[in-house]
Amino acid sequence: MRKSIKTIAAGTLAIALAACSTTGQTDTKSASSAPAKTETPFPSTYTPYPGAPTALVNATIFDGKGGRIDNGTVFFSGGKIVSIGGPDTPVPADIAVFDGTGKFVTPGIIDIHSHLGDYPTPSVQAHSDGNEATSPTTPEVWAEHSVWPQDPGFTRALANGGVTSLQILPGSANLMGGRSATLKNVPARTVQGMKFPDAPYGFKMACGENPKRVYGGRGRMPSTRMGNFAVNRQTWLDAKAYDGKKRDLAKETLKGVLDGEILVHNHCYRADEMALVLDMAKEMGYKVSAFHHAVEAYKIGDLLRENDVCSAIWADWYGFKMESYDGILENAAFLQREDACVVIHSDDANGIQRLNQEAAKAQAAGKRVGIDISDAQVIRWITLNPAKAMGIDGMTGSLEAGKMADVVLWNGDPLSVYSRPEKVWIDGALMFDAMDRKRRPVSDFELGQPGEGDVK
Amino acid sequence: MKRALTLAASVLALAAAPAAAQDFVITNATLATGDGSEPIERGVVVVDDGKVAYAGPQAGAGAFETDTVYDVAGAWVTPGLVATVTTLGLADVSGVSESNDVRPGSSPFNAALDVAPAINPSSQHILVHRAAGITRAATVTSPAGSIFGGQGAIIDLGADGQPVTRAKAFQVVAFGEGGARLAGGSRVATYVAFANALREAQDFGRGRWDAESAMLTRADAEALGPVVAGEQALYVSVERASDIRSVLGLKRDFPRLDLVLVGASEGWLVAREIAAAGVPVIADGLDDLPNSFEELASTQSNVGRLAKAGVKVAINAATMENPRNLNQYAGNLVALARVPGADGLSWGQAFAAISSVPASISGLGGKAGVLAPGAMGDVVIWDGDPLEVGSVPTKVFIDGVEQPLDNHQTRLRDRYRELDESRLPEAFDW
């Protein structure tokens, strides 16, 4: 049995590779990313599952870039988007065609902030692998070494949320929590089998209450916000002095950040504190890609735009800790008004199943105060914008010819509570189909358990 | 009754808060009465003396004299939402322990704890949730020192100094993994702790309670008397199918227990047994992950399957980020009706699961969560379908009194509408 599975997997690989070469996609993987890949000690072994040339027709399409096509067509083949357009878009004969009348198409949904796999369910102590909370700075740890690919949460994010890519971050106990892992949301036996090919690493940082509480509570530095900054700055200065002669995992990561190869994802709630972090980044010579949990971002939308920083936010979480007390429903809309980059994130194994609904809530709040943001623009908050902040926007996040065929067919308006993903493709492979119970992934953990294979 | 109203009015006047209960009529409503029926067009609601006098089609409305008519031009009108199992009014910021009264972990008392005097009607969470259309809530403390969490209250979210609709409305007890932890590390211990506590309560009632040999405090033994007698509902936190069966079996030893199951993620596996026992469920609406070993079979279809089996089921506010997401959760259960293999709810059923059903479980059947003659005048006018994400109330009435919808969040919203710092500092603009 085991043998035959292996054979099938090998066959899959061959098909996928062949598909790549026929669509001329080799140029997406630029030459510059190749050396970095050879240096990666845990390289991605992800290969797309087999797909068939597919066209979705007569659907309302949100392309992820802010565009909308009514009565539109998306055609993908060889794992890539081939064409997108109106009803006249040519589609080859003899391929799978799905009628999207009354349905909607979006790019695969992307969650920039997840702990799936690092804090998997069942969330028992033995599974608590998301915070190396033993030192205020742990740049040396990598989230991918904690990811349990069998976390049932991945399957729920796919089936209910249409999530095709996600970033797994270490937790926020530490000022510097370590490297993130960017994954394709596919079942795999190893984390390497999920790793998004050629995605840059992210680096998790946290400001504010968490680090000072965790370490201050143990009577050690940092116990204050000024302590947070002092430890951060000294750590950066030490990294800048690193000559690279003796390998040092922590400094290799920090060096990667300073060289612009690793993108900073900074957990930071308060506006005043985000402004301080931006100054620290300038002082030390790195860039913040996104502030996460940026509950007060609306107070500094202009500053965030000027610094080209995304704000990854919830629609309505507020008031659960002191630094979230000023959370308001209009956060995303006020940022959009300033032309700052908005990302809706989950940080939650349940919330990741409803990012579309969270985006809709944020949109509605804006509308009530006279900020009208189009549906197509709102979809961008959960597709192209997170892709940009994660450094994968050249490959996914929007429906454009040549990009990965990460596609969701919704059974209704994705910004309505009454809609659900009907089908989800990842790199052109049909990974979820609400109409086919065999296209409903069941993790190893769930086999033989109560509820196995249920719709969930 | 009249006198009570007059009194309430004078209190309000002193506080310079909203106008007193008025008589008013709402016309041209898309009307959902909350009783499980589907919405009706061109509905009319008549509120007289703080209570609903009529709610239904225009054709059925008789003559009524009033100065106040709201023609809502097709807008949705519903009863106020009822959020059950919340901590509303018990914390300003849950992560700020000084402000948080949810978990009295170091108290020598448990079952005797009574949330009513601790409720703060000025808590921002109450203001924010009032603006989200929640007019009544069940507020509880969490079991911390024993399996018993204390006595919850039914509150209203009105802008006055009297938040408590009904104090000591129910007792809370934890079974399953949570109860096991509190009872000494094993489910086995939970059952002994429970039986012993209830026997001590019986002894107390018979005048046979003896401080020397008792394990409960005097106050706790006394507090559990109404539970054993079935005069006070017992909210039981329980998730696993086998645990639910055992909890239903508690009635063999204590036949008068008025059980309510809370959580019940695996309820659908024993739905017929729950229905046969006539026990209502306050279910986690969308839990679908094996969050613990007692929730392996959790599914978003749980509520739909329980309802299908004839169980009275409300949506639990405790497991969502904020109770104001109740309507979003209910809307998701409607969405499930379109997913092959899933079990959802009709719109009317889903709305009832966050209005009349939790009200009924809370002992306010026919009084709250429903627009029917004699019900409290808790009425909400919405800017869209109340189960759709993003819909919010445009007007909220509690006991017939129009409520202010402003709060810390709306004030911040207004301050940061623009980021213009060319004039006086924002701190002077309030």
Descriptive account of the structure:
The complex is a heterodimer of chains A (456) and B (430). With 456 residues, chain A is α/β, with parallel strands linked by helices. Helix content of chain A is 28%, strand content 20%. Chain A has helices at residues 2-22, 33-39, 152-161, 209-216, 225-240, 249-258, 271-284, 301-306, 331-337, 355-368, 375-380, 384-390, and strands at 54-62, 68-77, 80-85, 96-99, 104-107, 109-114, 163-168, 176-179, 181-184, 202-206, 263-267, 288-292, 310-313, 341-344, 407-410, 421-426, 429-433. In chain A, the strands form three sheets. In chain A, strands 1, 2, 3, 4, 5, 15, 16 and 17 form an eight-stranded mixed sheet that branches. Chain A is globular, with a radius of gyration of 22 Å. Chain B has helices at 2-14, 124-131, 176-183, 187-205, 218-223, 225-228, 241-248, 271-277, 302-308, 326-336, 347-352, 356-361, 408-415, and strands at residues 24-31, 40-48, 51-57, 69-71, 76-79, 81-86, 134-139, 148-156, 164-174, 233-238, 259-263, 281-283, 313-315, 379-382, 393-398, 401-402. In chain B, a hairpin with a 2-residue loop joins strand 2 (40-48) and strand 3 (51-57). In chain B, helix 3 packs across helix 4 (187-205). Residues 1-18 of chain B have low confidence and may be disordered. Chains A and B meet through helix 3 and helix 10 of A and helix 2, helix 10 and helix 13 of B.
